[in-house]
Design brief:
684 residues; two-stranded antiparallel ribbon; 60% helix; elongated; disordered N terminus
Length: 684
C-alpha cells in the first residue's frame, strides 16, 4: 500500500504509524500491573544495598527494553489490531480491560475476603494507644536504647489518658446518677430494677419500715399509687382513729402511746397533733355555732357526724393549691353540691369557686399539721413549671347560675415535667432514644473490636528472641528500617529552607516494619489493654446510665456529646500533645500483619456475615434497653407525676377512689346525713 508513494512521503507515513504504535504500547504497559515489586534496600548492610540497587537498575533497563521492543497483547495468543493501535480510543481501552482474563488465584486476590480469613492488619492510628504500641520497638531499634524520650512520652500520654477518662467519668457520672437517683427516690419507689443497671438503684431498694422526711411522695396503695399527704391517708381510715368502735374519736384514743408510735412510723405525723388541729377547726367554724355537742366543745372527742362533715376539706386540700380549683370544677366534683346547695357558700359557681380558692390558699394550712406545708413545697418543686390555660365551665342541669348565663370561665393548669414524661409514650421519643443508643453502642463495639485485635496481636504475633543479646535491644530481624524506593513525585524540595535534602530523605523516605516484638513490650501492651477493657466496661455502663436519665431531648443529646468527648480523649491527646514530625514518624510505620487466632477457620464471607449479625445484635440490644427503660422507669414515673401533680390517671388512687361518683354521693347523701345527726346531738 505504501509502494506507490514517494520516498519522503512514504517515510513520513511510516514514522507516523510507528509513533502511534509506540504510544499505544506505552499506554498499555503503564496500565499493566507490575510483575514484581522492587525490594527495599536495607540501611544496615551497605554491600547488599549496593547490589540490590544495581539489580534494580538492571530491572529498570529490562523494563524499558520490554516496553519498547516487545509486542504487547491484551489477550494471550492475540496481537492488537492495526487500526486499534493506530487510532486508540477509550472504547478500545475499556474493551481491552474487560476482555483480559486473570487466573483463579489472581481473581481471588482481588477481594479482601481472601486475606482477612487468614490475617488482619493493625495500621497506625491517631491514638495514644497506637503510639504506645508501635513506637517503642522502632525507637529502640534506631537508638539501641531501652528507654528513650519518645518511649517515655508514650507512657506519659497513656497514663494521662486513663486519669482524664476515669476522672471525668467518675465525677460527671456520679453527679448525674446522684441527681437522677435523688429525684426519682423522692417521687416513687420502683419495685422492678432495670437489668442494665447491673446493681439495684436506691429507688429500687425496699422502702424503709417507718416513714421519714426522705420517703417517696407516692406510695403503693391497693392496685395503684397514692401521692396524697400522709395526713390524708390517716384521715381516710376511720377504723384506725376510732379504735374502740364507739363512733367517737376521743382524745384518749389519740393520746394512746402505742397508737401514736404506730401512726408516726406509718404516716410520719403525730396523731395527737392531728386530733387537736381538727378539734380546733371544728370549734372555730361559724357553721357549728350553736350546734356543738359537749364532747366537741370540751375537746374530749369528735363524733363521726362532725368528722364526716369535715372530711371534704382535707380531701380537697390534697390537690395542693388554688390553681387546681378550675380542673376540679371541670371534673364535675362540685356539680351535685351546686344542685343540692349542700353548703351556704354554694349558691352559684362563682361562690363555690371562691370557697375552693379560700380553702386551698389559707384554710388547709390551718386545719392540717405542719407536715402539709412541707408536702406542698416538695410537690411544687417536683412538678416544676406550670402551663396555664382557660376553659369554660358549664353548670349542671337544674342549677340557676344567672350572673354568668349558665357558664363560667375557669383556669386550667398543667405541668411541664408531666408533659415531658407524657411524650415518652410516643413512638417519636422511643425512636430517638433507640437511635442514640445504637450510635453509642456502635462506637463501643468499634472500641471493643480494637481491643480484641490488640489481644490477638499479643497472643499471635512472633516474639523477638534475639532482643537484649549483645548490644542490640531489638533484634535485627525483629524491626527493619529501610530506604523507600524513590519516585518522581516523592523527590524532596531542594528549595525548602526548613530541611536539607539528606534530612528529608532520612525523615520521609524510611520504611519501618515491625516483624517481632520483645516479651516485655508485649506484656506492657497487654497490661494497658486490660485497663482499656475495665475502662470500656465502666464507660459502657455510665453511657447507658447517661442515656436513660431524664427524658429531655436536649439533655440526651448533650449527654451523648459528653460521652463522645470522654471517649475520644486518647485521640485528642494524640493530636494536641504530639508534634507534627512525631505524628508523621508514627503514621509512616508499616501496618502490622497479624495471623488470625482461628487460623483461617472463619472464612472471609463468614466474617461479613458476622459483621451483619453484630450490627443487628447492636440494634436488638439497644431496643431491649429502650423497652426496659420505658416499661420499668418512664411509665411508672409518668403515672406517679400525673397522680402527684394533677391527681389524675388510671393508677392514681385518689382519682379512682374519690372520683365524681364519690363526690356526688358525698354532697347528696353523706353531708346531709351528717347535718341531720349533728342537729339531733346535744348542742351548746
Amino acid at each position: 500500500m505504501l509502494s506507490g508513494l514517494s520516498g519522503d512521503e512514504g517515510q513520513r507515513l511510516r514514522d507516523h504509524v510507528e509513533s502511534a504504535r509506540r504510544e499505544s504500547l506505552s499506554a498499555q504497559s503503564s496500565a499493566r500491573p507490575p510483575t514484581s515489586r522492587p525490594q527495599p534496600i536495607a540501611v544496615d548492610d551497605p554491600e547488599s544495598a549496593a547490589s540490590a540497587q544495581g539489580s534494580r537498575e538492571g530491572r529498570r533497563g529490562s523494563t524499558v527494553s520490554w516496553a519498547e521492543g516487545s509486542t504487547v497483547s491484551s489477550t494471550p495468543g492475540t496481537t492488537p489490531g492495526f487500526f486499534s493501535g493506530l487510532f486508540p480510543t477509550p472504547a478500545h481501552a475499556r474493551r481491552s480491560d474487560s476482555d483480559r482474563s486473570f487466573p483463579g488465584p489472581a481473581m481471588d486476590a482481588s477481594t479482601p475476603l481472601t486475606s482477612i480469613s487468614q490475617c488482619f492488619l493493625l495500621p497506625p492510628e491517631d491514638s495514644v494507644y497506637s503510639y504506645f504500641m508501635f513506637l517503642p520497638p522502632i525507637d529502640q531499634r534506631r537508638t539501641k536504647k531501652y528507654l528513650t524520650p519518645l518511649i517515655f512520652l508514650g507512657f506519659v500520654l497513656v497514663a494521662v489518658n486513663f486519669v482524664m477518662q476515669v476522672g471525668l467519668l467518675a465525677v460527671v457520672g456520679d453527679y448525674i446518677r446522684k441527681t437522677h437517683n435523688d429525684w426519682v427516690s423522692s417521687i416513687v419507689h420502683l419495685k422492678n430494677p432495670a437489668w442494665y443497671h447491673v446493681v439495684p438503684m436506691p429507688y429500687n431498694l425496699p422502702p424503709p419500715t417507718c416513714h421519714n422526711e426522705n420517703s417517696a411522695m407516692c406510695i403503693e396503695k391497693g392496685d395503684g399509687i397514692s401521692c396524697a399527704p400522709k395526713t390524708i391517708h390517716l384521715l381516710t381510715d376511720w377504723s384506725l382513729l376510732d379504735s374502740d368502735g364507739d363512733g367517737v374519736w376521743s382524745r384518749e384514743e389519740a393520746a394512746a402511746e402505742h397508737l401514736r408510735e404506730q401512726v408516726h412510723c406509718d404516716y410520719g405525723v403525730d396523731l395527737l397533733q392531728v386530733y387537736n388541729s381538727i378539734s380546733s377547726s371544728l370549734n372555730a367554724s361559724d357553721i357549728f355555732k350553736g350546734r356543738r355537742d359537749t364532747d366537741l366543745f370540751s375537746g374530749i372527742g369528735v363524733n363521726k357526724a362532725y368528722f364526716n362533715w369535715f372530711l371534704h376539706k382535707p380531701l380537697l386540700c390534697q390537690y395542693g393549691d388554688a390553681d387546681m380549683c378550675g380542673p376540679l370544677f371541670q371534673r364535675g366534683f362540685f356539680d351535685e353540691a351546686l344542685r343540692q346547695q349542700s353548703l351556704p357558700d354554694f349558691t352559684d359557681s362563682n361562690a363555690a369557686l371562691r370557697y375552693c380558692t379560700k380553702l386551698l390558699q389559707q384554710e388547709c394550712f390551718d386545719i392540717l399539721p405542719t407536715t402539709y406545708k412541707v408536702w406542698t413545697s416538695r410537690r411544687n418543686q417536683q412538678c416544676g413549671e406550670r402551663v396555664y390555660g382557660q376553659s369554660m365551665y358549664h353548670v349542671p342541669d337544674g342549677v340557676s347560675d344567672v350572673p354568668f348565663g349558665g357558664g363560667n370561665a375557669m383556669l386550667t393548669v398543667g405541668f411541664k415535667i408531666q408533659d415531658i414524661y407524657k411524650t415518652t409514650s410516643g413512638y417519636a421519643f422511643r425512636m430517638f432514644l433507640c437511635i442514640l443508643l445504637v450510635t453509642f453502642l456502635s462506637v463501643m463495639f468499634l472500641e471493643m473490636r480494637s481491643i480484641v485485635k490488640t489481644f490477638t496481636w499479643a497472643i499471635m504475633f512472633p516474639t523477638d528472641h534475639e532482643g537484649g543479646r549483645g548490644k542490640n535491644i531489638v533484634g535485627k530481624d525483629a524491626v527493619r528500617i529501610r530506604w523507600k524506593e524513590p519516585s518522581g513525585d516523592d523527590e524532596p524540595d531542594l528549595d525548602n529552607n526548613t530541611m536539607t535534602y539528606t534530612e528529608t530523605m532520612q525523615f520521609e523516605s524510611m520504611q519501618k516494619t515491625i516483624l517481632r516484638v520483645r516479651t516485655d513490650h508485649r506484656l506492657a501492651v497487654t497490661f494497658v489493654t486490660v485497663l482499656r477493657v475495665l475502662l470500656w466496661v465502666f464507660l459502657l455502663w455510665s453511657g447507658i446510665m447517661f442515656l436513660t436519665g431524664q427524658p429531655r431531648y436536649l439533655t440526651l443529646i448533650f449527654d451523648a456529646l459528653s460521652l463522645v468527648f470522654i471517649f475520644e480523649i486518647d485521640e485528642l491527646l494524640y493530636k494536641t500533645m504530639l508534634r507534627h514530625e512525631l505524628k508523621v514518624d508514627h503514621m509512616s510505620i508499616d501496618d502490622i500483619r497479624v495471623t488470625n487466632i482461628h487460623h483461617g477457620w472463619l472464612s472471609g464471607r463468614k466474617t461479613v456475615y458476622m459483621d451483619i449479625l453484630s450490627f443487628l445484635g447492636i440494634i436488638a440490644f439497644a431496643f431491649c434497653i429502650m423497652h426496659t427503660y420505658c416499661s420499668v422507669e418512664l411509665n411508672p414515673i409518668h403515672d406517679a407525676l400525673t397522680c402527684l401533680c394533677s391527681r389524675d390517671g388510671p393508677r392514681c388512687y385518689a382519682a379512682q377512689k374519690f372520683s365524681k361518683p364519690w363526690w356526688d354521693n358525698y354532697w347528696s347523701t353523706t353531708l346531709p346525713a351528717a347535718n341531720l345527726i349533728i342537729d339531733r346531738l346535744k348542742v351548746i
